[in-house]
Amino acid sequence: MFKSIHKFLSRFRREEDGQMLLEFVILTPLVFTAFLTAVELGIYKTRHLFLDRGLDMAVRNVRLNTGTDYTHADIKDMVCDFAGFLNNCDSQLKLEMNPVDPRSFTELANDADCTDASLPVKPSRTFVLGGQNELMLLRACYKFDPIFPTAGLGYDFATNGDGAGMAKMVSIAAFVQEP
């Protein structure tokens, strides 16, 4: 039995027919996976850039208009309006805002409070408006569907996402309420 296996493998080693086909079959999926990962990463970074921009512009409005009582929906609408590129932003974005004492800093919870399409809607974890000269942390969590959920980075996003296969991105802004 070992002789027949050895004979087959030695014949396989000597033959040169179809040699390029073997390399093509092995390398083509790797090249396509790298390409799809690059596209997914580029779109992810573009979404994250727009989320950061929207959050920064909304924080600027909140910071300069201290007397206005903003709600979660008001700030979320501002972020979505300024971001522009985020699909279904009004239903996929969730915000947390907490006052922070700079002398005894406590972090936000490690897991961001995000929406989950596979579960019933739950209210925001924490959303507290600050007063004048108070340091505030605002965290935005946006859920999105990967472009290629079965390949490369999109597969990693889909398997590590929520029950509906949606991935998340988180952006944080800190600001001080103006007097």
List the helices and strands and how they pair.
Blueprint: H1 2-14, H2 19-64, H3 72-83, H4 89-92, E1 93-100, E2 135-144, H5 152-159, E3 167-176
Antiparallel strand pairs: 1-2, 2-3
Question: Outline of this structure?
Answer:
With 179 residues, this protein is of the alpha+beta class. It is built from five helices and three strands, in the order ααααββαβ. 46% of the residues lie in helices and 16% in strands.
Query: How confident is the prediction overall: mean pLDDT?
Result: 79
What order do the strands of the largest sheet run in, or round the barrel if closed? 1-2-3
SSE string: HHHHEEHE
| Sheet with most strands | 3 strands, antiparallel
Number of helices: 5
Specify Rg, calculated over alpha carbons: 25 Å
**Structural classification:** alpha+beta
Helix content: 40-55%
Describe this structure in words.
This protein is α+β, with helices and mostly antiparallel strands and 179 residues long. The protein contains five helices and three strands, in the order ααααββαβ. It has helices at residues 2-14, 19-64, 72-83, 89-92, 152-159, and strands spanning 93-100, 135-144, 167-176. Strands 1-2-3 form a three-stranded antiparallel β-sheet. Helix 2 (19-64) crosses helix 3. The model is unreliable at 117-123 (pLDDT under 50).
